[in-house]
Amino acid sequence: MPVVVGAIVVLLALAAFFVLAARRRGHPSDDIDSFRRQIDALSPEARRQTSERMKPSDGRSTDDDGANGT
Questions:
Q1: Total-model pTM
Q2: Which of 11, 13, 17, 44 is a good FRET partner for 35, with 20 to 30 A between their CA atoms?
C-alpha cells in the first residue's frame, strides 16, 4: 500500500513539473510582441532613435571591408 501511494505522489509531482515547465517556456513570438509593446509605449522622441538604428543603410560603405563600422 505505501508503494502505491508513493508512486501516485511521484506521478503527481512529475505532472506538476511538466505543466509548470510548459507554461514558462512560452512562444518566441511572445518575445517579439512584448518588445513591440515596449517600444510603442515609448514617446515619439525615444522611438525615433530606435527606429533610425533599425533602418537599413543606403548601401554606401565607409569602411574598407564595407561593414560600416561593424
A1: 0.37
A2: 17
Quick: pLDDT tens for 7-55.
999 999 999 999 888 877 766 677 888 888 888 887 777 767 777 777 7
* Single-letter code of the amino acid located at 22: A
Distance CA 41, CA 39 (A): 5
What is the identity of the amino acid at 30?
D
Q: Tally the domains of the chain.
A: 1
Whether 61 is in a domain gets the answer: no
Q: Which amino acid is present at 17?
A: F
| 63 within some domain | no
Does 28 fall in a domain? yes
User: Which residue carries 517600444 as its cell?
Assistant: 39
